[in-house]
């Protein structure tokens, strides 16, 4: 699971902004793994073929033993503040992994400064496991020891398991049932508490770039936990002392001007009920640098500082520019954007501040990198009360669409993803397929049929108005300027899908259809959405390699209006500026309260194209406030 606990202090985002530094340090993530002593223990513990899900307990005990050896460094030091327990407690714990995906259990503990790790079948009787454990103890302690030097306590060691009432556990039962939380393993006079599936942090990292005024969001994964306690430390990189100063608890921090030149350190301690696992940490390798100053969205998010009322909805649609398209090889698109500002490491900081600053209830994103969704973005959004779903495009799914919804207001009931061009072949769109195939040679036909254009859908139920449903649809139509006819086909297929999804529900369903439609307002795509029909002789049908086949008349049954308006542009690169992004809304169920105007960007910056130091994408976000029509009646 991904454990996140965040404090959403939006106002602090507006503070600590200084002029930007032209030099940025791009450091790798710091995932710290301990010193040579710990690593040597792990080599001795594991044999080839040990299942991955059983690695946790032995790693935990290697670190616990490291603490008991008083061999602590900055990486593995576990203070009472971080752990809420001490080394003596660690020394009396047996970590048992009983994962439902495995046929084995793993038993790990330290006894008399030696590490023990047993990998036993779940179907094995307890008496056989205890006998094997006793044999392992004797073997390790009696090896190379003369008979005269044998400790009698070791030679006559008695190994038993007791339940929470102090009764000896029936040794005929199987391992799968024998090992329980808070049972006791007694080795003669030494008693150990059993912890089953101890919470464990598997991965943790911090952003490569840190800027004053922009949130630092940790990414971490944990297993067998309900979350993590997060602590933050900082250290002046130029100071003589190497001491870390703890300054807060919580899932996210926003450095300000006084933090410039500091490194930050985050410590995550996994937890489940009363149990705490071993802490794991990451450190920023680059120091905090000055932010870029006032970003293009800073004034805009002041207007969205207040969340909507319980019965209203704020919706955002935003193409955030996938990293695989934001390369210097795309010189036709971004010739004037500096390398450091087009890199996702930098843009992600601006994007997270902007998107969370809108205080939205529904967020539809296009061109989302799967790594960004899985890591920093979802970590930040979860901290602000969102859950998200992702739909990857194509075979590898390196980028795609994402829908986030605020859990306080909305509950996800179902999600659906459709590859539009594949749906063209499903038999329900034969009229569109005939138009598509007419006049196209086989090469063009095969190429366009392989376009991974997605329709991502989420059926959401209002928590404020039970049985009120919203079907949120998110898409990004094919971009090529000579393919208006293809975008028209794609939008028609999408609307037909949405009609079927709506009709499959028991009650009324409101539609929000958002995305990057790559179509200006004069096109047939826009006309179909807002007017409900397009004639067979619309000029966009003729935008093909040949004009040998007429189009078809298209209709749909939704009553949609464009809530986001038609500004002069929502997309700006060096050779094109136009309005391509929309939020189409079902007027039968929802009405517009506010459409937030786009930020003002100077003509000089627009001529150079987006993105830049102050704007993280080549598109601008569309932001609207909606309310239920029934409330206005």
Put the structure in a nutshell.
It contains 17 helices and 29 strands. With 633 residues, the protein is α+β, with helices and mostly antiparallel strands.
Characterize the structure shown:
- It is a single chain.
- The protein is α+β, with helices and mostly antiparallel strands.
- Helix content is 24%, strand content 28%.
- The chain is built from 17 helices and 29 strands.
- The strands form seven sheets. A six-stranded mixed beta sheet has the order 3-2-1-6-5-4, with helices on both faces. Strands 16-17-15-14-29-28 form a six-stranded mixed beta sheet, with helices on one face.
- A hairpin with a 6-residue loop joins β19 (454-462) and β20 (469-476).
- α1 crosses α2 and α15 packs parallel to α16 (524-531).
- Mean pLDDT is 84; it is low at 1-55 and 65-90.
Give the N-terminus to C-terminus distance in angstroms: 44 Å
Largest sheet, strands/sense/barrel: 6 strands, mixed
Shape: globular
Structural class: alpha+beta
What level of helicity do the residues show? 10-25%
- Using only C-alpha atoms, the radius of gyration works out to 30 Å
Number of strands: 29
What attributes does this structure have?
6-stranded mixed beta sheet; alpha+beta; 633 residues; 29 strands
Secondary-structure topology with pairs:
Elements lengths: L35 H10 L9 H14 L11 H4 L3 H5 L1 E5 L6 E8 L2 E8 L4 H17 L9 H4 L3 E4 L12 H4 L5 E4 L2 E7 L3 E6 L13 E5 L3 E10 L8 E5 L12 E11 L2 E2 L3 E4 L14 H6 L8 E8 L19 H4 L1 H14 L4 E8 H14 L2 E7 L6 E8 L3 E10 H4 L6 H8 L4 H8 L4 E9 L6 E8 L7 H20 L5 E8 L7 H8 L1 E2 L19 E2 L4 E3 L8 E3 L2 E3 L2 E6 L3 E6 L7 H6 L13 E7 L5
Parallel strand pairs: 1-6, 14-15, 20-21
Antiparallel strand pairs: 1-2, 2-3, 4-5, 5-6, 7-8, 9-10, 9-11, 11-12, 11-13, 14-29, 15-17, 16-17, 18-19, 19-20, 21-27, 22-23, 24-27, 25-26, 28-29
Helix pairs in contact: 1-2, 15-16
